[in-house]
Every structure is written in C-alpha cells, then in structure tokens.
Amino acid sequence: MRFLMTTKPTDEPADENLYAEMGRFVEELTAAGILLATGGLEPGGVRITSTGDEITVIDGPFTEAKEAVAGFALVEVRSREEAIELTRRFRKIVGDGESVIQQVFGP
Fold first, then answer.
1. CA distances from 18 to 26, 34, 42, 51, 75 (A)
2. CB within 10 Å: which end of the chain, N or C, has fewer?
3. Averaged pLDDT for residues 33-50
4. Nearest to 21 by CA among 85, 82, 91
5. Checking phi first, is residue 52 left (phi over 0); if not, alpha (psi -120 to 50) or beta?
6. Dihedral of the CA atoms 83, 75, 19, 90 (nearest 10)?
7. What is the CB-side half-sphere exposure of residue 22 using CA atoms within 13 A?
8. Which band of pLDDT confidence, cut at 50, 70 and 90, is reported for residue 44?
9. Could you read off the pLDDT of 57-90 as tens digits, one per residue?
C-alpha cells in the first residue's frame, strides 16, 4: 500500500539537531525500501480551477498559506497502521504541527 504523507508549515525554526535526526530517519526508511520520494514544496504555487469551459490560473501565495502543504513523503508500507506509525515517528522528530496521510491508489 502506498501513502502520501504531507505536512503543513510551522513557525518553528529548524535546528541542526532536527536536521541530523531527520537525516537518520530518512536513511532508515530509504534503506528499508519504504521511502519512495520526499521533498519540500514552494510556499506559493499556482492555483488552477475550472468551471465548465473556463480555466482560471492564479499565482500564489494565497491568504491561507498556513493551510498549504510544506512537504511530502511517498511511502510503501503493508498497512494504514504502519503509515500512521511512521507519521507518529516523524511528528516526534519535528515537534508540534499537522500532518495528513492519504492512501495512493493505482500501480
């Protein structure tokens, strides 16, 4: 089962200890074949909406930037519970904030 794990931005600055601990976590998951991709996302982005035949393109940043996704990890695990446990471990490393996991369907 694949899951997309996303996290929202926080106001807390990262320190060297956080980078070291996250580096070890990423290495562990990569070596185990669990972590398929990871990355941070630009804070603004572009919003594209459609209504009927009309397509609208709006450049960010958007007013609710705190609701935007700041980073992601794509993992392959045996169960939803395993994805939840990985996210718990991630939250313990990075501290207060919010993450969301969603199952990815398809090959």
1. 12, 21, 20, 43, 21
2. C
3. 90
4. 91
5. left
6. -10
7. 14
8. confident
9. 988 777 666 678 889 999 999 999 999 999 999 9
CB 6 within 8 Å of CB 72: yes
CA atoms of 92 and 19, how far apart (whole Å): 13
DSSP E strand boundaries for 8-89: 35-40, 46-51, 54-59, 71-76
Helix axis angle, 16-31 to 80-94, nearest 10°: 160
Query: Which residue carries 């207060």 as its tokens?
Result: 96
**How far, in Å, CA of 74 to CA of 7, rounded?**
12
pLDDT for res 45:
83
24: left (phi over 0), alpha (psi -120 to 50) or beta: alpha
Phi, psi of 9 (to 5 degrees): -70, 155
